[in-house]
Design brief:
The structure holds two protein chains of two kinds. By secondary structure, chain A is mainly α. Helix content of chain A is about 65%, strand content about 5%. Classes of the chains: A mainly alpha, B alpha+beta.
């Protein structure tokens, strides 16, 4: 799910770069020293994920794993995905140099949306919620990236609803596969190394006054 | 969950965690190796295209790197001044054949939807007559170099380069023979072109390892500077 060079118009490309720089600047500030090894491992996973083929019928799809990055890294997913996309562009020729901004907004935005869905698990008290919400987050990553893809293609004159439907239907297999992959990864990590997952505490805006009163330093991050 | 509760939960799990830390690390290493081994050649969904001149027609083919053909895709041909010359839809095999619209550099783009676009530049001298002999000689050298490691096809490889060049020089004025040669050459380079464009699309293991190394190096540098600040 990368947009190629030569499709989008200049204003869209520039908007992509501006948005990417703004969000990356904000999220990079949240990057602590202790996070860096984890971020670099997950960035590598994202970087090679698109090389993994899953055969479906006569065709095949490849993993994207924006959702997994979001679930593990939280909002740090954005710079991780940005670096992954830059390297995929330079080394694999996937996408294109002019569309790095838009592609980062698309997949990085998917990672952030996945994180938001992942955080919803704090409001549910059910068994295996890591598995369920990890899976939902994995699907959400693809879903919201598909929406951004359709939105940016609209600027080229394609009709939005049709494009969005087409894009989402084409990505249903990936959505299912990513839901399984991210769900099982989240469940596994929750069992063996829960602090590897992002967002041990609910998202700051989601926390009501009572919870805020009891927990003083509220980062989105796990307590060290 | 409150902070204190979390802490208790974490200390309770500490023994398991320290034990499993090793296992996680080992499994990460295992996953990394599997990723490197599994990753075969290319992206499933990178769109490629190539085109060549065959007689007075141009043949273009678009396909994804997993072998799927880009069927029913919009194909547009632009002239040197970015003027749109032709537009068409590829057939079920992702192919599109059209008459040469004008004797100039042509830019052929294919759009397979959902942000997939590829282009191919067909240079002007690819359809001029002089280039023909150049093409045949390049084929000669190519097939000769192939000869060294490929003995099965040696008779075919040998007859082609030896018979074709004289024909071209002696009967250059004969249109029929020229067209025939053009067709034969077109046919001969077809697999070559395909091979070339596949090779260009292939990702080497060096790229993958280099990328991972780049990521670790970059974050390592960031970590170094961050740790000096503190």
């Amino acid at each position: 799910m990368h947009i190629s060079d030569g499709i989008l118009s200049a204003p869209v490309l520039i908007a992509g770069f501006i948005g990417t720089v703004a969000v990356a600047a904000y999220t990079l500030r949240q990057l602590d020293l202790d996070d860096i090894p984890k971020v670099s491992v997950i960035t590598s996973v994202f970087f090679v994920a698109s090389l993994i083929h899953v055969p479906i019928g006569p065709s095949s799809v490849h993993l994207i794993l924006g959702g997994l990055v979001g679930v593990v890294l939280g909002i740090r997913a954005f710079p991780a995905i940005m670096l992954g996309i830059i390297l995929q562009t330079i080394l694999f020729g996937h996408g294109g140099v002019t569309v790095i901004g838009v592609n980062t907004m698309m997949l990085g935005g998917g990672g952030l949306m996945a994180y938001a869905v992942w955080q919803l698990r704090h409001h549910f008290n059910i068994k295996k919620k890591e598995m369920i919400f990890g899976g939902l987050a994995g699907a959400m990553g693809i879903f919201s990236s598909g929406i951004v893809l359709a939105l940016s293609l609209v600027t080229t004159g394609e009709e939005f609803i049709a494009t969005a439907w087409y894009t989402l239907i084409a990505h249903i297999p990936v959505m299912i596969i990513e839901a399984l992959v991210v769900g099982s990864c989240a469940a596994f990590l929750a069992k063996v190394k829960p602090d590897a997952l992002a967002g041990q505490l609910p998202l700051a805006p989601a926390v009501t006054a009572t919870a805020a009163a009891t927990t003083k330093p509220l980062n989105e991050d796990s307590p060290k | 969950m409150e902070r204190s509760q979390l802490k208790a939960y974490h200390t309770k799990n500490k023994a398991i965690i320290s034990n499993s830390c090793q296992r996680v690390r080992r499994s990460i290493a295992a996953i990394a190796t599997i990723l490197l081994l599994v990753s075969p050649t290319a992206f499933a969904h990178k769109l490629n295209m190539f085109a060549y001149v065959e007689g007075d027609e141009i043949f273009a083919e678009a396909y994804f790197t997993d072998g799927k053909k880009a069927k029913n895709s919009a194909i547009t041909i632009f002239g040197p001044d970015n003027k749109q010359l032709l537009q068409g839809i590829s057939n079920e095999d992702g192919q599109f054949t059209f008459a040469i619209p004008q004797q100039s550099d042509l830019r052929i783009t294919v759009n397979a939807g959902m942000g997939h676009q590829a282009e191919y530049l067909l240079l002007k001298d690819e359809f001029s007559e002089e280039s023909e002999s150049a093409l045949t000689t390049s084929i000669t050298t190519a097939s000769e170099s192939v000869n060294d490691n490929d003995n099965d096809n040696s008779d075919i490889q040998h007859t082609e380069p030896h018979t074709e060049p004289p024909r071209v020089t002696t009967n250059l004025d004969n249109d029929a023979i020229r067209a025939e040669v053009e067709r034969a050459v077109g046919k001969a380079i077809k697999p070559l072109m395909r091979e070339l464009s596949t090779m260009r699309a292939e990702k080497s293991l060096a790229d993958i390892i280099g990328g991972i190394g780049f990521i670790f190096g970059l974050f390592g540098t960031a970590m170094y500077f961050k740790s000096r600040q503190q």
